[in-house]
Structure formats: C-alpha cells, structure tokens
Design goal:
661 residues, alpha+beta, Heat Shock Protein 90, Ribosomal Protein S5, domain 2, Rossmann fold, 4 domains, 9-stranded mixed β-sheet, 5-stranded mixed β-sheet, 23 helices, elongated, binds adenosine-5'-diphosphate
Length: 661
C-alpha cells in the first residue's frame, strides 16, 4: 500500500472546532504556554510507555532512554517537540487529536458567555492541551508511531476545519510535533526564548528536556544536546528545595488547569508504609464538579513509575476537587484499580490524605479559605454526611451565613459563632469579625476581642445551643418569623439555604459540646437565655382561644400553642423535632418518593393585636376565615405553597371588601 492511497481528510469534531477558534483568540496574550502543554503531553506519553514496558520490555528495547527533545530551525521558523514515549496509532491520532473526549463538553460550551475575558478563563479551566499549538502555529505536523507497531502516522492541520492523516514510514517511536510558526511568533524558534519557557514551566518534568548546546553553530556536526530542565520528578525533591513557582507549574501539569492552585501540601511519610503525596486545592471548581463521571483522583506512581491517572481510591468522594500525586513505595507495580479498591494500604493512605487535606484547608488564610468555601463548600457539606471519622474537622471547616451579618456573602465559622455566643450585644457591634479564623486559639472563654462590659452584664447564664434555620433561600431565611424572638434577644442564628443543608444536618448532633437547634422545630424555650423583652411569658389563661383555634384547624395541625418565638408575626408553623423538613420533602418529591406525613404545630403570638382581637370575634364564620388566613400565611412564610390558593385569595379579598366598606 502506498502512503498516498491511505491519506484522508477528516473534519474536526464540532466542539473541537469551536475550542480551537476560541482558544486562538483568547489565549493569545499567554501564548508561550503551548510549549508547556506539548511537553506535558510528551511527559505523559513517556510515563505511559514506561508503565507498559513493565510487562513488555520489548516495547522499549530499541531505545530505552526516555527523553524529550526540543528542536528548532530559525530560518524555517519551525519548532518541534519530540518524545520517545508511547506514541499513537493512526486511529488514536484521529481520535485524540480530532475530538475532545471529555465528558461535559457540551455543557462547557453552553456555559461560555461570548465575553472573551470570561471565556478565556473558562477555557483554561477546561484544559486546552495539544490545541494550544495553533495559537502560535499556522501549520502543525504530528509524526507518531505507537510503541510496538511498525507503521507510523502523519497528521497535519492548519487548525481550521479539518486535518489530514496518512500512514508514514520511518517514523521513530513516540511523537514528534512540529509547528510552523506564524509570522508574529518566530521568537519561539530561538534557543534563548525556548530555554526560558522550558525552565519557567517545565522544570519539574521528570524526564530530561534536551536542547542543542548553545554556541555550537557548526552546521556540519550533529549538535550536542543538553538537558535544560532539572529532570527530577518534583515530588521526590525535598520540600525546601522546591520553589512556589515550581509547585504551581507542576500543578498545572497534573491538573490541566491554567490557574494557580490556592494551596498545596507536600509530604513524605516513612515508617510501616512509605509514600509521598503532593496535594493541591484548585482555585476554582471544574465546570463538571457535579458530573458524576468527572475526572477525579490523584495520579498514582509506584516507586516513581507512573501507574495511573485518576486513582480515585485515595480520597473520599467529597474531596474530588483535590488534585495531585501519590507515590507509594509499597504497592506492587502491577496494581490495578480492583486491587486498590480492597487494599488495606490504600485505605491507610486514604485516611491519612483525607486528614491532610482537611488540615490544609483549616490552616488556610481566612480570606483565601472564604474563596475556597464559595467554590467547594457544597461538596465539603457532603463530607459531613459521609465521613463520620472526620465529622468534627469538617464541621470546623463549614461556613455559614448568619444573622450576625446582614450581608449574605459574609460567612461565619462555628468557632466564631461560639466565640460570640456569650456576647449578646453582638448585634450592636458588628466590628470587623475575623471570619473563618480556623485556627483561632479557640477557647470559649475570655475572648480578647470582647471589649465592652455589656457582654458579661447580660445575665451570667451561658447559652448552650447553636441555633440555625433552614430555608429555601437566604432571603427567605432572613425574613422568617422564626427569627423574631432571636432578633429581639440579640441571639445569633445561622442561616442555611443550600439544598443539602437539611440532609447533612440530619447527621449532626453537636459541635464542641454544644447541641445544634433548628429554630423552626420543637418547643422553644429561650427564657433561660437573656430575656428582657418579654416579661410575662406564660399566658395560659388564654387557653380558651387556643382551644377555639384548634377546633377550626382540626387535624391540619398537631396542636395549637402559645408561641415564644414571635414578636411581629401573629402565628407560625413549627415542626416536631424529628419531622421531615421542607428541603427533604422536596428532594423526595423530586425523586418520586412519598414523604412521610407530619403535621406542624400552629403557634400563636398572643400579644399580637390581630390575635388579641380574635378573642372578641363572636362571628364563628369570620373567626374561621381569619384562622384559615393566619394558617395559610404561616405556611407561606415557611416557603410552602398554600394548599388551596383560590380559597385563600377569596378569604383575603372578602376581608378587604369589608375593610373598604
Ligand atoms: P489532554 O492532554 O488534556 O488529554 P490534549 O489535547 O493535549 O489533551 O491531548 C489529547 C490526547 O492526545 C492525549 O490525551 C493523548 O492521548 C494524545 N497525545 C497528545 N500528545 C501526545 C504525545 N506526545 N504522545 C502520545 N499521545 C499524545
């Protein structure tokens, strides 16, 4: 068969075409990264061949020394990145270089805004890899031969609509990517420029990146090569030997992310088990964080040999956003995912790495952690329900909106909440709170920031509960009648409005010895807390009214009682301690399950003028209407729908007509 006969022109997949176009425009200002991407691919290809050669040495017998080379021709304006790694078969070249094989690609393109600045950030996050060649090249040629195969492949494209593939003879094992540089990118065919880019981005690559020695301008001789990187796998180096920039670049290599990480933790463990881990917290959540098939997990090495990507056995699901490397000295080189799954060593490492990540998060600068929380908070909340061994650490990492601060973007930690607990005048003094002080030398007592005496003067009694409220949205939470008594007493309440809050809360009893209390549940007794706003609480002589209301509501409610929660609203609904809340009900309904029946208590504010007037209402019909309205309103305030909206509107209108005469 002749080479010509096998040539074919293929179109890029639509998404690939879109990506190419967008990328060329939006990454232009950062175009030198193409080299990093190509070297990163070359190094991955070598890792993969090294792994395959463990079981089949013949694959590398012809050329056992792994290396990457960068060649350039200043006159021709070309630069090549050459590796002797795994290479690609023809089919693989078509598949890998012509399509984007990432799940969620469609969603990604849907998420693009058309605003170039924003989109370029998204693109970085998506990972552009090989296609970044087209930022600087008008023409790209890939010569590749898969290890163990005879025939090579030549792939060429100008990065527009299509590419050409054909068989090719005399191709060395591995891959040679040659870029014909655009007129304004000729600088990348110069030794100095290339060297500086390699050092900047790829110093950590574990194989040597070779370039011709400088000065050897003798055209007749084969140029002498030298390594321009340090060629030592970064995680194998001692910590204080590695600079921040190197850590950051290495992160980009393992994560395919363009952003810097926000934190990392590099550790070598010796003893019964020996392993090194380097774990990173990304700045931003990947666009497919909620996709169950999203890539996750660490790169696994055994004794420095790359074994697999996305080894997800080393971290729990709720830490799926963490990136990095784990290199074990104990696992066998032929370890498989199945073996990992059941291996005790895996479990031990996983437990240790989990603690490391949580610890790293806890030690972050509060302002930086705030951003991490905004990106990954919801996933960490999953952890509270899934990882009982680390529940306390996780609770310490949670951040909440709270009545302490009317700005819903402000967050508080439980530690801060507790520190403020005995300072009931907190509403008055919203001074700069160090939000998220994870490592505050805690101590419940004697907090130095509590300055004025009024804090202690309040009543001497300590509150012993962490109060919270769950609602559909922050706005709904803040306007909930359940907060009234707390506001009146200056008691802080945490406001939860994420859809999984009720779920994870159901796994939590207490933090730091303090019980959690849902303010919308059960009988509330704030009277041992500082209480000057309500002198006489028990108005039991009003019981006839409560009874009368109970008769109207019948079995719609569990019971009717006087409310100690309300100051402004006439009535509210209160769930039993163990009843299912509104969020869980919604989730069950959405998944087609029947939520168990539960009836709320109807609580009435006996000091409310409307309620006081009810006492005098002799007309039973009118009394019934008023109670029905109060009940429906209380329902609305919970974020529930009114069961008979039409009837509600009619009743209200009837009253309005009477009012207007
Ligand atoms: P990514 O590296 O993020 O998967 P790329 O677009 O850079 O995306 O590359 C797509 C695929 O092409 C890679 O996953 C790999 O399978 C293949 N590939 C790219 N470069 C090489 C190379 N130098 N050697 C072997 N395979 C390569």
């Amino acid at each position: 068969m002749t080479e010509q006969a096998t040539a074919e022109i293929r179109g890029f997949q639509t998404e690939a075409r879109k990506l190419l176009k967008l990328m060329i425009n939006s990454l232009y200002s950062n175009r030198e990264i193409f080299l990093r991407e190509l070297i990163s691919n070359a190094s991955d290809a070598i890792d993969r061949l090294r792994f395959e050669s463990l079981t089949d040495e013949s694959l590398i017998a012809d050329d056992p020394d792994f290396r990457i080379a960068i060649e350039f021709d200043n006159d021709a304006g070309t630069v090549s990145v050459v590796d002797n790694g795994i290479g690609m078969s023809r089919d693989e070249a078509v598949e890998n270089l012509g399509t984007i094989a990432k799940s969620g690609t469609e969603e990604f393109f849907d998420a693009l805004t058309g605003d170039e600045k924003k989109d370029s950030a998204l693109i970085g996050q998506f990972g552009v890899g090989f296609y970044s060649s087209f930022i600087v090249a008008s023409d790209v040629e890939v010569l590749t031969r898969r290890a163990g195969e005879d025939v090579g492949t030549r792939w060429t494209s100008t990065g527009e609509d299509d590419f050409t593939v054909e068989d090719a003879a005399d191709v060395a094992r591995g891959t040679r990517v040659t870029l014909t540089l655009k007129a304004d990118a000729k600088e990348f065919a110069e030794s100095y420029r290339l060297r500086s880019v390699v050092r900047k981005y790829s110093d950590h690559v574990g194989v040597p990146v070779m370039m011709a020695k400088e000065g050897g301008d003798d055209d007749n001789k084969e140029p002498e090569l030298e390594a321009v990187n340090s060629a030592k796998a970064l995680w194998t180096r001692p910590r204080n030997d590695v600079g921040d920039d190197e850590y950051k670049e290495f992160y980009k290599h393992v994560s395919h992310d363009f952003d810097d990480p926000v934190a990392w933790s590099h550790n070598k463990v010796e003893g019964k088990l020996e392993y090194t881990s380097l774990l990173y917290i990304p700045k931003r959540a990947p666009f497919d964080l909620w996709n169950r098939e999203m890539p996750r997990g660490l790169k696994l090495y055994v004794q420095r040999v790359f074994i697999m990507d996305e080894a997800d056995q080393f971290l729990p699901l709720y830490l799926r956003f963490v990136r990095g490397v784990v290199d074990s000295s104990d696992l066998p080189l032929n370890v498989s995912r199945e073996i990992l799954q059941q291996d005790d060593r895996t479990r031990t490492i996983r437990n240790a790495l989990t603690k490391r990540v949580l610890d790293m998060l806890a030690k972050m600068d509060p302002a930086e952690y705030h951003e991490v929380w905004d990106e990954f908070g919801l996933v960490l909340k999953e952890g509270v329900g899934e990882d009982f061994a680390n529940k306390d650490e996780l609770l310490g990492l949670l951040r909440f909106a709270s009545t302490h601060d009317s700005d819903p973007t402000q967050r508080t930690s439980l530690k801060d909440y507790i520190a403020r607990m005995n300072d009931d005048s907190e509403e008055a003094e919203s001074e700069e709170e160090p939000e998220g002080e994870a490592k505050a030398e805690a101590g419940a007592e004697g907090d130095a920031s509590v300055d004025d005496a009024s804090a202690d003067e309040s009543d001497g009694k300590r509150r012993d509960k962490i109060y919270y409220l769950i609602a559909d949205s922050d706005a709904a939470a803040r306007s909930s009648p359940h907060l009234e008594a707390f506001r009146a007493r200056g008691i802080e309440v945490l406001l939860l409005s994420d859809r999984i809050d009720e779920w994870w809360m159901s796994f939590v009893e207490e933090f730091d010895g303090l019980k959690f209390q849902d303010v919308a549940r059960g009988e509330l007794d704030l009277d041992d807390a500082a209480d000057e706003s309500k002198e006489d609480t028990a108005k039991s002589d009003d019981e006839p009214l409560l009874k009368r209301i109970g008769e109207v509501l019948g079995d719609k409610v569990e019971g009717v009682r006087e409310s100690k929660r309300l100051t402004d609203s006439p009535a509210c609904l209160v769930l039993g301690e163990h009843d299912m809340g509104i969020q869980m009900r919604r989730i069950m309904e959405a998944t087609g399950q029947a939520a168990p029946e539960s009836k709320p208590h109807f609580e009435v504010n006996l000091t409310h003028p409307l309620v006081e007037r009810l006492n005098d209402e002799a007309d039973e019909d009118r009394f019934g209407d008023l109670i029905a309205i109060l009940f429906d309103q209380a329902s609305l305030a919970e974020g529930n729908a009114v069961t008979e909206p039409g009837a509600y509107v009619k009743r209200v209108n009837k009253l309005l007509v009477e009012l207007l005469g």
